[in-house]
Amino acid sequence: MRLLAATDEAALKKAHDDLWAGDLDCVSVAPDVQQGGRNLELFLDRLLASASTGAEHLLDPAFAGALDESETALTAALRDFEANLPAAARAAPAWNVVEDALRRMGMPYGSANA
After folding, report:
1. Statement to judge: residues 45 and 65 lie in one domain
2. Could you give the number of structural domains in the chain?
3. Is the separation of the CB atoms in 57 and 66 below 8 Å?
4. 70, 99: one domain
5. Structural domain boundaries, residue 36
6. CA–CA separation, 93 vs 108, rounded Å?
7. Are residues 70 and 96 in the same domain?
8. pTM for the whole thing?
C-alpha cells in the first residue's frame, strides 16, 4: 500500500474544502495507516457487494432522460403492467414480491395504483 505524500494529503484537503465542504466529511477509519487500509479494503468490498444491479434506475422518473431505447421500452411496459393490473391481482399474496421488485427498479411510492 502506498502512503499519501504530504503534497497528496494537502491536495485532498484542498479538494475537500473547495468542492465538498458541507457535503462530504473525511473521517478516520482506524488509529493507524495499516489498520485503516485494511478497514477501507473491507468497506470497499462490502460496498461493491451491495452495489447496483443495474436496474434500480429503470422506473425512477429522475433517470428517464438517461435511458436508452431498450430501457425506455422496458420501462414503458413495466409502467403499463403496473397501471393496468386489476385490484384482484394486487390482492394475491405474491403481489408483495412483484411490488418489491418494482420498487427496487425505482417505482416511486404513491404511483398511480400503488
Report:
1. no
2. 2
3. yes
4. yes
5. 6-49
6. 21
7. yes
8. 0.53
Tell the residue number behind the cell numbers 495499516, with chain if given. Answer: 34
Q: What residue type is 84 in one-letter code?
A: N
Residue type, 52: S
Rounded to an integer, what distance in angstroms lies between the CA atom of residue 113 and that of residue 62? 19
Same domain, 45 and 69: no
Q: Is the dihedral of CA 39, 41, 44, 50 positive or negative?
A: negative
* 59 burial type by CB count under 10 A (0-12 exposed, 13-18 middle, 19+ buried): buried
* In a domain? residue 1: no
Q: How far apart are the first and last CA of the chain?
A: 50
Instruction: State the Cα–Cα distance between residues 17 and 24, nearest whole angstrom.
Output: 9
Beta-carbon contacts of residue 67 (< 8 Å; ≥ 6 apart): 57, 58, 75
User: How far is 83 from 23, CA to CA, in rounded Å?
Assistant: 38
Query: Residue holding cell 477509519?
Result: 29
pLDDT of 60-101, one tens digit each?
999 999 999 999 999 999 999 999 999 999 999 999 999 999
The Cα 91–Cα 70 span in angstroms is 31
